[in-house]
Design a protein that fits this description.
The chain is globular and about 50 Å long. The longest helix is centred in the C-terminal third of the chain and has 17 residues. The protein has about 180 residues and is α+β, with helices and mostly antiparallel strands. Strands 1-2-7-9-8-4-5-3-6 form a nine-stranded antiparallel beta sheet, covered by helices on one side. It is about 25% helix and about 35% strand.
Length: about 180
């Protein structure tokens, strides 16, 4: 009951990928088990993270507004994720594909947009509030990485995801996350 309430609260009635929480570590982080799911994604190269997020968001937003093979509008989902790789200026921005389209998502008509399947995974998640800048995401990711190293938790250190749950128009009670994949 609490898990489903938390998932519903975080998503603000927007669909999000299914997960269960296997353990919570005080206020520091939680370990979630995410189910296999399809995401619509785009890679933005050679821009700042902030600019890549802006460009990537709009490419994906056009996809859900009908720039797909079926010219179908698709509901917005959460979170909007961004893959950050150490020493790399490529950023992969993604929207979760709603459940009703998971089996057969409309194919994008923009050649820079693609459907990907993310396999089930165990992910360490650190949540924080406020407006998240690239610097704040990096700071929170470093805090999470330090905690995981100190506790001997094995994780993929060469990349992390940012996850944003709120519209830019939401001013209070904002929810953001950083994710590291468990090894």
């Amino acid at each position: 009951m609490i898990k489903s309430f938390k998932q519903t609260f975080l998503s603000l009635d927007l669909q999000s990928p299914r997960w269960s929480s296997s353990e919570t570590m005080a206020k520091d982080y939680e370990l979630r088990q995410y189910e296999t799911a399809k995401w619509v994604s785009t890679v933005i190269r050679g821009e700042t993270q902030k600019e890549a997020m802006r460009q990537g968001f709009w490419k994906l937003f056009h996809y859900i507004q009908g720039k797909n093979e079926k010219e179908m509008k698709i509901d917005m989902t959460v979170p909007v994720t961004c893959l950050i790789k150490s020493g790399c200026a490529d950023f992969k921005i993604s929207f979760f594909v709603p459940f009703e389209h998971q089996d057969s998502p409309p194919q994008p008509t923009d050649s820079d947009v693609f459907i990907e399947e993310r396999k089930a995974a165990s992910i360490f998640v650190r949540s924080f509030g406020g407006f998240a800048s690239p610097e704040k995401y990096a700071e929170e990711a470093e805090v999470l990485a330090r905690i995981l190293r100190n506790r001997g938790q094995p994780f993929h250190e060469d990349f992390f995801y940012t996850a944003g749950y709120d519209s830019p128009f939401k001013l209070f009670n904002r929810h953001n996350e950083v994710w590291y994949f468990k090894k």
